[in-house]
Design the sequence.
């Protein structure tokens, strides 16, 4: 089990001389989930004043991201090379995170001065003022005992000549990119006031081959597309994966036994098992937010209904819907008390909400067209879905069905999944005629849309939570 | 073996043996290919159908050849209703299935690409079931017919236009050799 360690006593250590932290082994504790600003808080009085209600204000901030310095250029067990090369790679990951998501106006590390190790905590502010940088990110990387990598990250306000926040992480070599994502998360959170999301993973379906003989494989990657890995061979079609909240398992649909059936894939053991032995086709798997329950939809005699079963295995499935037609999918509210799902019981696909025990089912979508694949935001304030009006478009609405608005306008965009902080939505886009699929993302303004880099065609993204 | 209990069409014993042999050989085949090579050697039968070069009677190849397209029925957008053309096709299928009462079949339900993936899986299942129910209403034993949905994952027409979509909204009956 790989672990990322947050350096809890980081602030104290770095208040001394640079030499001090080379000799004292910092006490380490696991990071608490979702810290808005890990590490000792910076001076709050002098903190940056930004308005987060209007995205455009903070998105115009110019941030200089410099190559992370090292005390000694020594080999590492990472695939990035020595500590000096790793320092450069770390800053590139940070810059790419912020840049690719349309956040801020990051520059560097290319074309920027490289701070010395001793300058990491004492930036040369006049240099950065002259370059018209609003914000400055500096950092360091050191090779520790047992191959562990220690990374420090600092955010400065150039105009105020002040440190806003800092963080430090100790990671095994294979996880070095996570330290960069943690740094980007820290910067993003401090400047936007939003929760972090970069240190997270995505499960999806990798697609290759012609439209009528397309191979569909289960695959995973980091939120930035790195550490890509196929989990199935492609001999059986795989569809609609969902990461468990703790990233230990993936629910997905496979045609392994001929019928579409839901399996739970264990990432530690690389084994899988049927979630329910029904003898009927099962589809559309979902986790509850606490990981204790699994929703699946089962067809019987042409009818499809939603069932709930314990994720621990065993137990009798509980049928949650029982109406003529197709009721399918389901996405829990963040507190686990409600489930939003789609049903054509009224004649065509519409969005419904029910209590998590199946009671109090009520339709919430009343705006024309068909509405499908609802996903409740991790913040609870919005429901993303596919609006089918000839074309398929990604849209959001309030949990009561009001405030519907489209985020995309293409030929075929479907199956939204939320970023862990509920600010960004990924979906897949199918090209007309060719049928090639690709994963895209869009923020809630609808303005920042981009295609994710995947090795081959890609569909059914499922974004997991931010990692602890 | 059910085939021996329904000697409706009195044929030569060798035909029965051939069917039994084909069943045994293909017990593990999950899906029959659309076309099979013709069987070598003449079939000794009083039935008018197969010529010397025709497919083996009772095989999937024979089914495809005899259906002349009626192995597939088509649906309206988002619909699973069986219209008169579908009824005619299914009646033809039922006749064949009753002629070869030991044969089993899988009905594959499909949807066009304009719906969402998960819903189309359920819709394909609903269409396959509609076809199955109609065959059952014509006297085919329900236990002989399986259904499987491929949703929009296996289009047969590759365009993104009305004509292609119409071809893809289908249920295909495939007999199991």
Sequence:
């Amino acid at each position: 089990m790989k672990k990322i360690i947050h350096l809890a006593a980081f602030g104290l250590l770095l208040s001394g001389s640079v030499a001090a932290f080379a000799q004292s082994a910092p006490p380490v504790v696991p990071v608490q989930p979702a810290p808005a600003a890990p590490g000792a808080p910076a001076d709050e009085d002098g903190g940056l004043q930004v308005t987060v209600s209007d995205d455009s204000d903070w998105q115009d901030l110019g941030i200089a991201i410099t190559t992370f310095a090292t005390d000694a250029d020594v080999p590492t067990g990472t695939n990035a090379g020595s500590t000096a090369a790793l320092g450069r790679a770390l800053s590139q990951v940070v810059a790419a995170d912020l840049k690719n998501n349309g956040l801020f106006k990051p520059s560097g590390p290319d074309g920027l001065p490289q701070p010395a190790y001793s300058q990491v905590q004492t930036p040369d502010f006049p240099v950065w003022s002259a370059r018209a940088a609003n914000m400055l990110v500096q950092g360091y990387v050191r090779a520790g005992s047992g191959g562990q990598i220690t990374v420090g990250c600092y955010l400065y306000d150039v105009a105020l000549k002040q440190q806003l926040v800092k963080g430090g992480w100790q990671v095994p070599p294979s996880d070095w990119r996570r330290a960069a994502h943690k740094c980007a998360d820290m910067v993003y959170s401090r400047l936007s006031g939003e929760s972090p999301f970069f240190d997270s993973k995505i499960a999806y379906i990798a697609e290759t081959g012609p439209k009528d003989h397309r191979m569909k494989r289960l695959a995973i990657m980091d939120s930035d597309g790195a550490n890509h890995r196929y989990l199935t061979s492609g001999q059986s079609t795989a569809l609609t994966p969902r990461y468990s909240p703790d990233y230990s398992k993936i629910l997905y649909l496979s045609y392994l036994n001929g019928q579409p059936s839901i399996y739970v894939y264990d990432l530690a053991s690389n084994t899988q098992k049927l979630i329910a032995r029904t003898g009927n086709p099962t589809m559309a798997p979902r986790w509850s937010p606490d990981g204790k329950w699994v929703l699946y939809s089962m067809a019987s005699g042409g009818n499809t209904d939603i069932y709930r079963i314990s994720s621990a295995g065993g137990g009798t499935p509980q049928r949650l819907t029982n109406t003529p037609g197709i009721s399918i999918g389901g996405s829990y509210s963040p507190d686990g008390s409600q489930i939003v799902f789609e049903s054509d019981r009224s004649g065509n696909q519409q969005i419904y909400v029910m209590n998590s025990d199946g009671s109090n089912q009520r339709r919430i979508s009343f705006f024309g067209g068909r509405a499908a694949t609802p996903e409740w935001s991790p913040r609870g304030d919005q429901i993303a879905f596919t609006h089918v009006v000839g074309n398929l478009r990604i849209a959001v609405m309030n949990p009561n069905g009001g405030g519907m608005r489209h985020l995309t306008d293409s030929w075929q965009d479907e199956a939204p999944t939320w970023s862990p902080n509920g600010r960004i939505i990924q979906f897949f886009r199918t090209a007309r005629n060719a049928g090639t699929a690709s994963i895209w993302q869009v923020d809630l303004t609808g303005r920042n849309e981009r295609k994710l880099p995947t090795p081959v065609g890609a569909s059914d993204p499922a974004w997991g939570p931010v990692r602890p | 073996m059910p085939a021996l209990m329904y000697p409706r069409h009195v044929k030569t014993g060798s035909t029965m043996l051939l069917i039994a042999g084909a069943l045994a050989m293909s017990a593990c085949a999950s899906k029959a290919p659309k076309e099979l090579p013709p069987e070598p050697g003449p079939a000794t039968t009083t039935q008018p159908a197969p010529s010397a070069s025709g497919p083996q009677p009772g095989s999937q190849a024979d089914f495809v050849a005899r259906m002349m397209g009626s192995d597939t029925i088509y649906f309206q957008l988002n619909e699973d209703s069986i219209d008169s053309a579908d009824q005619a096709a299914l009646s033809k299928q039922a006749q064949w299935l009753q002629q070869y009462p030991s044969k089993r079949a899988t009905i594959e339900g499909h949807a066009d690409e304009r719906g969402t993936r998960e819903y189309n899986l359920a819709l394909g299942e609903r269409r396959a079931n509609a076809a199955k129910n109609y065959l059952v209403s014509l006297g085919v034993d329900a236990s002989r017919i399986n259904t499987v949905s491929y949703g929009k994952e296996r289009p047969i027409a590759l365009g993104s236009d009305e004509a292609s979509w119409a071809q893809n909204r289908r249920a295909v009956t495939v007999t199991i050799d």
Residues 11-55 of chain A have pLDDT under 50 and may be disordered.
